[in-house]
Write a structure and sequence with these properties.
By secondary structure, the chain is mainly α. The chain contains five helices and no strands. It has one domain (8-126).
Length: 134
């Protein structure tokens, strides 16, 4: 396996781990929206509108994570789910950069790193995860 071109088995393992992490984040954001919201947006986390948006993002991540896991478990194509997750993460990167100066310093770096990592993981695994074995 090349670190920049994982084989099918390694790519699918990364896809499954990403699906689990995304699902877990989605549940946490929906149930206790202040937990993932606080580092990202700071003091506005207590406002009802902020909690609403955090729950909506949680629903998005839960749907993407469960879709990815379902596809991987059925040995079906995961590429559409991985690409959709990568696009959602790219949206988070752009949103973070647009609000950069108003976000908590450490939180914005953590969210930017996590979201950019999701984009990179999607780019590296979407194709190989569905490549035929052998």
């Amino acid at each position: 396996m090349s670190p920049l071109r994982p084989d099918r088995a390694d790519a699918r393992r990364v896809v499954v781990v990403n699906g689990i992490a995304r699902s877990a984040l989605g549940v946490v954001a929906f149930v206790v929206p202040g937990v993932p919201l606080a580092p990202w947006v700071g003091p506005s986390r207590g406002q009802e509108a902020s909690r609403l948006l955090a729950r909506a993002l949680g629903g998005r991540d839960l749907a993407l994570g469960l879709g990815t896991l379902t596809a991987a478990r059925s040995a079906g194509p995961v590429r559409p789910w991985v690409v959709a997750g990568g696009l959602a993460d790219a949206g988070d990167v752009v949103a973070t950069l647009l609000a950069w100066r108003s976000l908590p310093r450490l939180g914005r770096l953590a969210v930017l790193a996590a979201a950019a990592g999701g984009v990179l993981a999607a780019a590296l695994t979407a194709g190989p995860a569905d490549a035929t074995a052998g």
